[in-house]
Every structure is written in structure tokens, then in C-alpha cells.
Specification:
Layout (H helix, E strand, L loop, with lengths): L1 H59 L2 H15 L12 H23 L2 H20 L1 H5 L3 H25 L3 H18 L12 H32 L2 H32 L8 H33 L4 H4 L3 H23 L3 H53 L13 H9 L1
Helix pairs in contact: 1-6, 1-8, 1-9, 1-14, 2-3, 2-4, 2-8, 3-4, 4-7, 6-7, 8-9, 8-13, 9-10, 9-12, 10-12, 12-13
Length: 421
């Protein structure tokens, strides 16, 4: 009895410790970006410059982030059915990041008309994709302390880059310094870039990667679509205003992302999943957390805008509830989507993302053009609610170990007990 209690306590402590490090990684980066960097840029250089930077970083958070994250998750879920090596993924990463760099070069030249900027922007996106994939090193080994240090170094690099920017007035340097520091740390700390012979599972990996890439492109495209659509249809000034009113909600998303990281990391192991009771508890916790997050947004958003963006407080504060309501519903849905991904159900995961993303992009364009931010927020609420309902239903049918006949450890706690033994 005592040994069993110790094992459960040890397992719970491990999860809590990992959660602290993953959330800490997100928090430190968001503090640097949203409390220091963007408000300072807005104060010193104005809404137009800040809005332009947010637009280009929105492109970064769509394409190279999708490449790195999709390949990282592909390597994690591949553990369910096969053994893999670095050689199974490095070729995919090189080809994908090169294509991604070409796409980002196009966007850079189309919107800035500067060849040097476009080339450097493309190079930056390749570095970013490699850094995002390199996080698999820490997730495979459950080294979330290293995961935290990586994000801390990136954040410190952003601050160093910000100081350089005030001297050279070339904004890419802000983010370049941070991403290079993070990538160098991954190279020193791990070996995911070490050449190894492939196992011959290339086509299976490409299939899973392609499905996840499409899904994450849609997810991140929708998450950044607000900046792109507002920039294109209205103005760069309104991009900065929308960023301010959605900042607290999106920062809470950053806190949910570490939970998704842990869900995929742990549930992608062989034999892991939920019992019916644990899934009901998981659902109740997710929905309850969403309500608490929305209440927090209603309190924190007006305070944040008043402190850091008081120049347009009256223009934007009326959109606080509808904007954050749509965001929070979407973030709760992402928790259930992570459970679906963790089980290797890449096809059904992609179908849900594709329907959700297609509806959002089409409707958001029409309603933003007609009703501005109010239209964008209304579409977000409606489409994300549909996604939440669908993801709960599908997650319940794919993640319950009650329906499985394998004899491997089923639940997270059981898996932890075996590992501790």
C-alpha cells in the first residue's frame, strides 16, 4: 500500500513538475513579447510599425511554425507503432523548411518590396522551423527543464535583439537573435540533428507529417488570420488595436499549449489513454477552466489596455467580451484535439481541422469586411463552438482504453507506475 502510494505520488509530482516547466517556458516568452517588446515598440515607433511587425510575425507563426511543430508531433506519435531515427525526419525537415523559406520570401517581397529584407526573412523562417522541430529532443526525453531553458534563452535573445534594433532599426534582428540562441542550445544539449540511418518508414512518416502539417497550417493560419485579414482589409493600425484586445485571451492560449504538449507527449506512448471516468473528469476540468479563463479575460483585458495602450482604449474596449469568448472556446477545443492527435488519428484530426479552418477563413473574410472586428469575433464564437462539440465526441471514441483489448498499461497513472518500477 505504501509503495503504491509512493508511486502515485511520484507520478503526480512528475506531471506537476513538467507542467511548471512547460508553462514557465510560455510565461517567460509572453512576458518578454507582450509586456516588454510590443508595448515598447508601439510607444517608440507607433501603431503602424508595430502592426507591420505583427503581420510578418503572423506569417512566421503560420508557415515555419507549422513545419517544425508538425514534424515534431509526427516523430512523437510514430512511437505508437514503430521505431524511428533522426534519419527518418531530417530529410523531410530540410525539404519542408526550404519550401517554407521560399513561400515566406514571396510574402516578404510582395509586402515590403525589398530584396535584402525578403532574403533575410526567408532565412529567419528556416531557422525558426529548425528550432521548433528541435524541441522534440526535450519532449522525447521528457526533459521539460531543458524545454524551459530553451524558451528562456529565446526570450533573452529577443531582449538582446531589441537593444540592437534601437541601433540599426532593422526589426528582424529582434527575433533572429532569439531563435539562433534557442537553436544553438538544442544543438549543444541534444542529438536530434545527428546523422543516423533511416529505418525505411519514410512513406508512413510523410503521410502522417503531411496530414499534421495541413492541420497545423489551418490551426495556426486561423490563429494568425485575424492579423492578416485586418491588415489586408482595414489597416495596420487596427492590427495593433486588435492585438491589444485579444492579448490576454491569446496569452491564456499560450498557457493551454503546454498542456497540449504534455497530452501529446504522454498519451502518444504505447498503451496510454483514458478510462471513461478519467475522460469525464478531463472534460469537466477543460470546460470549467474555459469559464474561469473567460472571467479572467474580462477583468484583465481592460486593465492591460489602459496601462499599455491607453491611446485607443475607448475605441477597442467594447469588443473585449466577444473577442475573448471566441478565443477561449477555441482553446478548450484544442485540448480535445490534442488527445485525438496523441492516438495517431491523423486522418480524423485533419478532417476536423480542415472543415473548421475552411469555415473560419471563408466566413471571417466576409464578416470582417462587412462588420470589422465585431464580425470577426462573431465568426470565431460560432465556428469554434462547432469544433468544440465535434472534438469532444471524437476524442471520447478514440482515447478510451476501455474499448481496447491490448494488455499494455492503459492510463497515465498506470504508465507512470510501470516506469517508476
Amino acid at each position: 500500500m505504501i509503495n503504491k502510494f509512493k508511486k502515485k505520488f511520484s507520478g503526480g509530482f512528475k506531471y506537476a513538475n513538467d507542467m511548471v516547466f512547460t508553462m514557465g517556458a510560455t510565461v517567460v516568452m509572453q512576458i518578454v513579447l507582450q509586456i516588454i517588446l510590443y508595448p515598447l515598440l508601439n510607444r517608440c515607433f507607433g501603431e503602424s510599425i508595430t502592426g507591420t511587425i505583427l503581420y510578418f510575425m503572423g506569417i512566421v507563426y503560420i508557415f515555419p511554425q507549422a513545419v517544425g511543430t508538425a514534424l515534431c508531433n509526427t516523430r512523437l506519435i510514430s512511437r505508437k507503432t514503430m521505431d524511428t531515427t533522426n534519419g527518418d525526419f531530417l530529410g523531410i525537415l530540410i525539404v519542408s523548411s526550404t519550401v517554407c523559406g521560399a513561400i515566406c520570401f514571396y510574402f516578404g517581397y510582395k509586402d515590403d518590396k525589398d530584396l535584402l529584407f525578403s532574403l533575410l526573412f526567408a532565412l529567419f523562417t528556416i531557422v525558426y522551423a529548425f528550432r521548433m522541430y528541435a524541441l522534440v529532443e526535450f519532449r522525447l526525453n521528457k526533459d521539460f527543464k531543458g524545454y524551459f531553458v530553451n524558451h528562456l534563452l529565446v526570450s533573452i535573445g529577443y531582449l538582446i535583439g531589441l537593444g540592437i534594433y534601437f541601433l540599426c532599426h532593422f526589426w528582424l534582428v529582434i527575433f533572429f537573435v532569439g531563435e539562433v540562441l534557442g537553436l544553438v542550445y538544442s544543438l549543444i544539449k541534444g542529438n536530434v540533428f545527428k546523422p543516423e540511418k533511416a529505418t525505411g518508414n519514410l512513406m508512413k512518416n510523410i503521410k502522417d507529417y503531411s496530414l499534421l502539417l495541413i492541420s497545423i497550417l489551418l490551426r495556426d493560419g486561423v490563429n494568425q488570420y485575424d492579423k492578416v485579414i485586418i491588415f489586408s482589409l482595414i489597416s495596420s493600425n487596427l492590427v495593433a488595436q486588435y492585438n491589444a484586445v485579444s492579448l490576454i485571451g491569446k496569452s491564456l492560449q499560450m498557457l493551454i499549449n503546454p498542456v497540449n504538449t504534455l497530452i501529446v507527449t504522454y498519451l502518444s506512448e504505447k498503451g496510454s489513454g483514458f478510462t471513461k471516468t478519467k475522460f469525464r473528469k478531463f472534460t469537466a476540468i477543460c470546460l470549467g477552466t474555459g469559464v474561469l479563463f473567460l472571467l479572467f479575460c474580462q477583468i484583465a483585458t481592460p486593465i492591460y489596455i489602459k496601462l499599455f495602450y491607453s491611446s485607443f482604449y475607448d475605441e477597442i474596449i467594447g469588443y473585449c467580451f466577444v473577442v475573448n469568448c471566441g478565443l477561449i472556446i477555441g482553446f478548450v477545443a484544442s485540448l480535445f484535439m490534442a488527445t485525438i492527435m496523441s492516438q495517431g488519428k491523423t486522418t480524423v484530426y485533419t478532417i476536423i481541422q480542415f472543415i473548421w479552418g475552411g469555415l473560419y477563413i471563408a466566413l471571417a473574410y466576409f464578416f470582417t469586411k462587412k462588420y470589422s472586428i465585431a464580425g470577426l469575433a462573431g465568426v470565431s464564437i460560432a465556428v469554434n463552438m462547432l469544433k468544440l462539440v465535434a472534438s469532444i465526441i471524437v476524442a471520447r471514441t478514440t482515447c478510451l482504453t476501455d474499448n481496447n483489448t491490448n494488455t499494455e498499461p492503459h492510463t497515465l497513472n498506470e504508465q507512470t507506475e510501470i516506469e517508476n518500477e
